[in-house]
Amino acid sequence: MTIQQRIDDASREALRQQDRQRRSILSFLLAALKKAAVDARQDHPDDALAVTLLQKLRKQFQETLDSARKGERAELIERTTYEIAVVEEFLPAAPSEEAMRAIVAEEIARLGAASVKEMGKVIAAASARLAGADKARLSAIVRASLTG
Prior knowledge:
The protein is mostly helical. It has seven helices and no strands.
């Protein structure tokens, strides 16, 4: 079952349960997925596109949460925390640090990368194999592997 199908099923369930808040965020996610598919010229968003979009939305919600905390806006903090939790339900589990290091080492060996100048190639190859990986963590691991 694809991520879009899982979100659609959860949306229907929220409608049956009359959970307006959950239904609202799920409808937003479905609309964002459809827009991303159109932008990528796909009939239906594949899981790679969905994961990328959900990670982007989680980051945006996290920034909103940080701003709400600075402004001491309790209602916005509560709503945004809930939105982040819903988005995270549909993201694959992030790989462990050890798994990321192992895949990065394999990709460096496969590509024959020897310097930081080839970091982009290694990140692209590794991120294709590491669905759900935090790009900042992956970048740091690649940089450390290539410099040390």
